[in-house]
Structures are given as structure tokens and as C-alpha cells.
Amino acid sequence: MLGENGDEQFVQTNIAVWILTSAATAFLAVRLYCRLRFSQVWWDDFVLTSSWLMLLIAGALLSSATTVGYDTDDDKRAFFRLHHTSTSMTTIATSWSKVAFAITMTRIVHNHILTCCLWGIIVTANLVIILGIVSIWIPACGDPLAIYRPEHNLCWPLRDLQYIGGTTIVYGGVIDILLALCPWFVIRSLLLQTREKIGLTIAMSLGALTGAIVILRAFFQFINIANTYHFMVFMSIFNFMEPAVSIIAQTIPMFRVLFIRAKRDTQGDIRINSLASRGELTGVKTNSLENARTWENKTPGHLDRDYELLNVRVSPGGRVIQVPDPYEIEDNRSYVQ
User: Fold this and answer.
1) Three-class HEC string of the chain
2) 20, 103, 143, 192: which could join 44 in a potential S-S bond, CB 3.0 to 4.6 Å?
3) Percent of the chain with pLDDT over 70
């Protein structure tokens, strides 16, 4: 169970982590809905969904670690095992979220140099995962908590581990900057209005926001802070923040598709209602014309004659008489008075 001093810290971390995961889940659902409804799912969607799955598993493992606590030696060993696995999952999720955006850009980039750069990012982003996981699982020499870690027979100098972990974090920030610049070279040549180009470019470049997260992670990576249970759990917030923000940023351009589709559907409903109203009016006019034509066929003479004049007949004796209905007359001579 948890110690009293760790309850509040662990609860706050769990809340922050699951808020980030829930937000990423909601935005990813919008992205997949747009792809399934309006286009088709592609490789970047599969990679981004895999990144989200890693984030979800990492959240469950971190919650389990905070539930176990660190009261006994067995609890400490379980805590490190769950925490390290969770951190490894977030490292993979972070790299795969960048890979997903790079794959997206390969679909719209037609420049050979940019395409080669994107594929270089895809390959190196997967390779850098190895360095990140090494810095997570191998303890630092002299760490008093190393005996509780899953790998306690091997240790590296603390500074070396900091450089390895810092390299992974900083390189991730460099990838974010490069991927944020790519849309500016691509969208400017599209046949769109200027305001649409600017809006779409900004939306696709929001991944640069993770650069601020990278700076914070790098700052905490190199400062001298005791690597306690509370600090490790606190750093998990930044581990979750980077892939979650990356997933959200890659989904925001999809809202443009939703807006355009909703606008078209609304205009379509207005047109349908307008056409229905016109159809009703046309139907009224058509019925009027048909009635008039029927009246003309049934009525002897022209329609502009007075109806009262059509209800009178002249008898053989020369007298003018009125008949009940001109259409019921079969023989005028039968109404002789």
C-alpha cells in the first residue's frame, strides 16, 4: 500500500495522466471517424493508433505502480518493474507518434530531398527507442535504490545515463521541429485560398508544441534531483504529455474536414427544403392548370364566359329558362316548359 506522504502526489499524477490519455483518445476517435467516413484508413492511422495503445497500456501500468506503493521490499520491486515498463511504453508511443506524422507527410511531399529526410526520420525515430529504453532500465552506479530495480547486477555512471536519455529527448525535439516545418513547404503549392493555406499549415505544425515539453524534460534530465519515487512519478506526467499532445495535434486538421462536410450537409438540407417548397408550389400550379383544363373540357364554350349564362337555355317556344347544371343536360329539348 501507499505511504501517507505519497498518496496526494500519486493521486494527482494519476489524474493528470488519465486526462491526457482521455483527450488523446477523444481526438484519435475523431480522426478515425473522419478517415472511415470520408476517405480511407492508411498506414499513418495504424501507426498513430498503435502509439495510442502504448499510451493506454502505459497509463494502466503507472496506475498499478502507484497503487502498489513502496512500503515493503516486494512493493518497491513491483513499483520499479511497473514504472519502468510504463516509461518504456511512453517512449515507444512518443517515437511512433512522430513516425505517424512523418508517414502522413510522405503522402503529400513530392520533393525527393524532403522524402529522403522523412524516411530518415522514420528510421532514426525507431532506432532512438533503444537508447531511451537503455537509459530507463539500467540503474546508475551508487544508486541506493538499485537493488530494487529489475536490472541490479549492471550499472552505468549517472552522467552517461543522463547523456543517453537526454540525447533521446533532444533528438525527439529536433524531429518535432523538422516535421513542423515540412507543411510550410508543401501547402504553399496547393490550390487553396491564402487564409486556408495559413490555417491548415498552422494546424499541421502544432506538433511543434511538443518542443516546449522536450525542453522541460531535458531540464529535469540534467539537474541534480534525488531520484525518489515521487520524482519518478512526477516525471511520468511529461512522459505522457509528449505523445498525447502529438496525437491531438495530428488530429486537429481533421476538424477542417468535419466543418466542411457539416457545412455542405447543411447547405444540402436547405437546398432540399427549398426544392421541396418549389415542388409544392409547382404542384399547386400544375393542379390549377389541370383543373382549368378539365373545366375547359367539361364546360361548353370558353372559360371566360359567365357561369350564369351557361345555366340558361332557350326553349323551342322562345322562352329563356334556367337549368340546374349544364353538365347534366343530355338534351336541351327535354327542359321545355
Assistant:
1) CCCHHHHHHHHHHHHHHHHHHHHHHHHHHHHHHHHHHHCCCCHHHHHHHHHHHHHHHHHHHHHHHHHHCCCCHHHHHHHHHHHHHHHHHHHHHHHHHHHHHHHHHHHHCCCHHHHHHHHHHHHHHHHHHHHHHHHHHCCECCCCCHHHCCCCCCCECHHHHHHHHHHHHHHHHHHHHHHHHHHHHHHHHCCCCHHHHHHHHHHHCHHHHHHHHHHHHHHHHHCCCCCCHHHHHHHHHHHHHHHHHHHHHHHCCHHHHHHHHHHHHHHHHHHHHHHHHHHHHHHHHHHHHHHHHHHHHHCCCCCCCCHHHHCEEECCCCCEEECCCHHHCCCHHHHCC
2) 103
3) 67
The pLDDT mean for the chain works out to 76
Given its phi and psi angles, is residue 318 left (phi above 0), alpha (psi -120 to 50 degrees) or beta? left
Residue-wise pLDDT for 236-290, tens only, equals 888 898 899 889 988 887 877 777 777 777 766 555 555 444 444 445 444 544 5
Residue whose C-alpha is closest to residue 102's, from 30, 29, 27, 182: 182
- All three cell numbers of 33: 471517424
Full set of structural domains in the chain with CATH = 4-252 (1.20.1070.10), 301-337 (no CATH)
Other residues' Cβ atoms within 10 Å of the Cβ of residue 198? 13
Say which residues have a Cβ less than 8 Å from residue 247's Cβ, sequence separation at least 6: 24, 27, 28, 48, 51, 52, 55, 97
Q: CB of 277 within 8 A of CB of 299?
A: no
CA distances from 47 to 54, 95, 255, 268 (A): 11, 10, 20, 35
pTM: 0.72
Q: What is the pLDDT of residue 50?
A: 96
Here the cell at position 233 is: 512519478
